[in-house]
Design brief:
Distance between the termini: 57 Å
CATH topology of the largest domain: Spore Coat Polysaccharide Biosynthesis Protein SpsA, Chain A
CATH class of the largest domain: Alpha Beta
Number of strands: 29
Number of domains: 2
C-alpha cells in the first residue's frame, strides 16, 4: 500500500509567535531562507507523494502565491479553505475527505521541522500493513504534545493529549500515516474535547480501542515543533548546519579585505564591504549591503537588507530590514521592513513598537 497523497497544514493564527505572525502566515516564515512549509513539501516529495492538499485560513492568498500549483516539485498542489472556524487539527483532515477518497494518505503538520527522511516510516507502514502509523520523537516536555501509552510488552495501547503527568518522554510528532477510510470512520465516532476541538489523539485512541493496527516508530534525525520563537531559532540553526557546502554559492560582490569563514551564501546583487567578517553557516539574500559588521554564525538574512556596524549571531532577519547601529544582536527574529538605527543626538529616541514585541536594552 503506497501512499501518494498528503494533507499539509497551512492555516491557524500562530499567536505564540506574535508579533512576527501578525502580518505573515507562520508557514511561510523563512528557516534557512526557505519558507517553512517548503521543508515539509520537500520531505513529502522525497517520500513519494504526488498530490498535496493544503488547508488555508478563509480568504488566504499569501500561501498560494508562495507555493504555486506544485509544478516546481513535479507534483500537484490543491488548496482548500478551513470552514467553520478553528475546530482542531483532526477537523482539518475531515475537511479534506473529498480529496482523499478511499486512498491511504499522510497528514503532516507543516510547522514540524525534520532533519531525517520519511522513507523508513513509509516503508514500515506498507510492509506491516498498518491502518495507522504514528511518528514519535523523544522530547523534554512531552506534556505539550500527544503522548503514546505502551503496555509492558511495549505495544501501543493509547494516546493521551497533553497529559499533566506523561507516562514517558515520547511525543507524537505531527506526521501521521493512515490506511484507506480508517481516519474518516473514526472521526464519525469522536467528540470535541474540553478545549472545543476535535483532537487527533482521539482519533488514534478510537482506532486502538476498536482493534485497528496502529504502529508507532521513532523517527530518525532531529525533529522540532516550531511552536515558539526559540524553536524557530533552533530549527534555523540546525538546518543551516545540516546544509551541504554546495548549498552556499557566492553570487554577490565581495570587496578585498572581507573575511569569510565557513559556509556562506551571498545572494545575487549583494555587496560585502572590505571591513566585514562573515562566519558560516550563514545565508545572505539578494541585494543586501554589509558594512563594518560581523555576521554569523547561524544567521539567515532575507533580501534587500542592510547591516552596518552591528554584530549579529543566531538570528533570522526578514526582507528589507535595516540595522545601522553598534549593537550585538543574538537569538533574535526581525520582521520585514524593520529599522534599527543609531540616533546621533541626545534628544531622546523615537521607538515605534507593535503588540507583543520584545526589546532588550
Amino acid at each position: 500500500m503506497h501512499i501518494k497523497k498528503a494533507i499539509l497544514t497551512g492555516g491557524g493564527r500562530a499567536t505564540r509567535l506574535h508579533p512576527i505572525t501578525t502580518t505573515i502566515n507562520k508557514h511561510v516564515l523563512p528557516l534557512a531562507n526557505k519558507p517553512m512549509i517548503f521543508h515539509a513539501i520537500e520531505k513529502a516529495v522525497k517520500a513519494g507523494i504526488k498530490e498535496i492538499f493544503i488547508n488555508t485560513n478563509p480568504g488566504e492568498t499569501e500561501l498560494q502565491q508562495y507555493i504555486g500549483d506544485g509544478g516546481h516539485w513535479g507534483i500537484d498542489i490543491t488548496f482548500f479553505e478551513q470552514t467553520g472556524g478553528p475546530q482542531g487539527i483532526a477537523h482539518v483532515v475531515k475537511e479534506a475527505e473529498k480529496f482523499i477518497g478511499h486512498d491511504p494518505f499522510m497528514f503532516y503538520l507543516s510547522d514540524n521541522i525534520l532533519l531525517g527522511g520519511l522513507n523508513e516510516l513509509f516503508d514500515e507502514f506498507s510492509a506491516g500493513k498498518y491502518d495507522c502509523m504514528l511518528a514519535l520523537s523523544e522530547v523534554n516536555d512531552p506534556e505539550r504534545f500527544g503522548v503514546p501509552v505502551f503496555d509492558t510488552q511495549h505495544n501501543l495501547i493509547d494516546v493521551l493529549e497533553k497529559p499533566q503527568n506523561p507516562p514517558n518522554n515520547f511525543a507524537v510528532t505531527g506526521i501521521y500515516l493512515y490506511g484507506p477510510r480508517v481516519f474518516f470512520e473514526a472521526f464519525d465516532h469522536i467528540e470535541k474535547s474540553t478545549r472545543g476541538e476535535y483532537e487527533i489523539s482521539s482519533i488514534h485512541s478510537y482506532l486502538l480501542k476498536t482493534g485497528k493496527k496502529v504502529g508507532a516508530k521513532e523517527i530518525t534525525g532531529w525533529w522540532k515543533d516550531t511552536g515558539k520563537i526559540e524553536d524557530l531559532l533552533i530549527a534555523n540553526r540546525l538546518l543551516l548546519e545540516k546544509m551541504d557546502t554546495a548549498d552556499f554559492p557566492n553570487h554577490g560582490i565581495v570587496e578585498e579585505g572581507a573575511r569569510i569563514h565557513g559556509n556562506v551564501h551571498i545572494g545575487l546583487g549583494s555587496r560585502i564591504a572590505g571591513d566585514v567578517t562573515l562566519n558560516g553557516p550563514l545565508i545572505i539574500g539578494e541585494n543586501c549591503i554589509m558594512k563594518q559588521c560581523t555576521v554569523g554564525p547561524c544567521v539567515a538574512i532575507g533580501s534587500g537588507c542592510e547591516v552596518i556596524g552591528a554584530h549579529v549571531e543566531d538570528s533570522i532577519i526578514l526582507d528589507n530590514t535595516e540595522i545601522n547601529a553598534d549593537l550585538f544582536i543574538r537569538n533574535s527574529i526581525l520582521g520585514k521592513n524593520v529599522k534599527i538605527i543609531k540616533k546621533s543626538s541626545t534628544e531622546g529616541r523615537s521607538i515605534i513598537v507593535g503588540d507583543k514585541s520584545v526589546i532588550e536594552l
